[in-house]
Amino acid sequence: MKKIKRILWPTDFSALAEQAMETVITLARSFRAQIIIGHIVQPIPVSPPSLNFDVTRYEKEMLSSARNNLKKLAERLLQKDRKLKVKTVVRLGQPAESIAELASHYQVDLIAICTHGRTGFNHFLFGSVAERVIRTAACPVLVIRAKASS
């Protein structure tokens, strides 16, 4: 079995996605692996000039906000264990494709991704980022099923 040196944990900052945190920490401790926490900001379609909306400025603000949120998330991980090696990365792009690209770029050995477990019409409408990552990533993908809070 190949040694796991880097684990990519993509997050959308949802409470459900954070349920993967303990699993990711356990894996990182077990393998003494670095955790790369990633977030993908989806580009928005260009708005018509009549709306007077600055797409570039909005995307820059979203990227900046994501960086701040990732920094806070990394700090929470380090509060749980100061020995963890944590890196954060934000990209602009389509989630599944960008996650696979990050995994390749950082030569990660495992992607640990949470799934919301949508079924039926919601699955049809929103699709599954986790499914698309499984199909496109060059490394193993651990899918962690989130539990909806009651």
What does this entry look like structurally?
The chain contains five helices and five strands; from the N terminus they run βαβαβαβααβ. With 150 residues, the chain is α/β, with parallel strands linked by helices. Among the domains are: 32-44 and 57-90, no CATH class; 103-150, no CATH class. It has a five-stranded parallel sheet, sandwiched between helices. The chain is globular. The model is unreliable at 121-126 (pLDDT under 50).
**Strand composition percent:** 15-25%
Q: Indicate the percent of residues in helices.
A: 40-55%
Which regions contain 5 or more consecutive residues with pLDDT less than 50? 121-126
Question: Which H/E pattern describes the elements?
Answer: EHEHEHEHHE
Structural class: alpha/beta
Short description:
By secondary structure, the protein is an alpha/beta fold.
